[in-house]
Amino acid sequence: MKETTLCYIERGSEYLMLHRTKKKNDANHDKWLGIGGHIEPGETPMACVLREAKEETGLDLLDCRCRGIVHFRSDRWEDEEMHLFTAARFTGDIIPCDEGDLEWIDRDRLLSLTLWEGDRIFLKLLADGAEGFDLTLRYAGERLAGAVLNGNKLEIGG
């Protein structure tokens, strides 16, 4: 099972989003995501998210907060445990990213982007100020087949 981090960097009413367009054989190709990546051996989730933010954006995060854990289960990809963060304070200048294009997107526009279906669930949790949540997302191919939040099954669209 892989362990990863994902961070939504905030600037006013915007999130810094990564449009994944540059990597070959990318399960996230053409999707919009926050910033993050794989936790290296011996690395903590916090150390990982700080490192990934610096590598992908050039920014140093100053107030990173862990908001929840997202468990991905799939019939196509390796299971994943993702530590979800937000950060509203940072220093530095944005650099080009070799995984795709970085863009500040107003939160009101987020749901119009090409996202994983399950991302819409945790983006709403973030918007509602949720912390300490445990979310399991089960995928059949690229379709969200089930979701459980803090032990309670969620109704998902069809």
Description:
The chain is globular and about 40 Å long. The chain has 2 helices and 12 strands. It has helices spanning 45-57, 117-127, and strands at residues 2-11, 14-20, 32-33, 35-38, 60-61, 65-74, 80-87, 90-91, 100-106, 133-140, 143-149, 152-153. Strands 1, 2, 3, 4, 6, 7, 9, 10, 11 and 12 form a 10-stranded mixed beta sheet that branches. Strands 5-8 form a two-stranded antiparallel sheet. The protein starts with a strand and ends in a 5-residue tail after the last strand. With 158 residues, the chain is of the alpha+beta class. Helix content is 15%, strand content 44%.
Describe the structure concisely for a colleague.
The protein has helices at residues 45-57, 117-127; strands at 2-11, 14-20, 32-33, 35-38, 60-61, 65-74, 80-87, 90-91, 100-106, 133-140, 143-149, 152-153. The protein has 158 residues and is an alpha+beta fold.
Secondary structure elements and their pairing?
Blueprint (H helix, E strand, L loop, with lengths): L1 E10 L2 E7 L11 E2 L1 E4 L6 H13 L2 E2 L3 E10 L5 E8 L2 E2 L8 E7 L10 H11 L5 E8 L2 E7 L2 E2 L5
What's the Cα radius of gyration?
15 Å
Q: What level of helicity do the residues show?
A: 10-25%
Question: Assembly type of the shown chains?
Answer: single chain
How many separate helices?
A: 2
Features of this protein?
158 residues; 15% helix; alpha+beta; globular; two-stranded antiparallel sheet; 2 helices
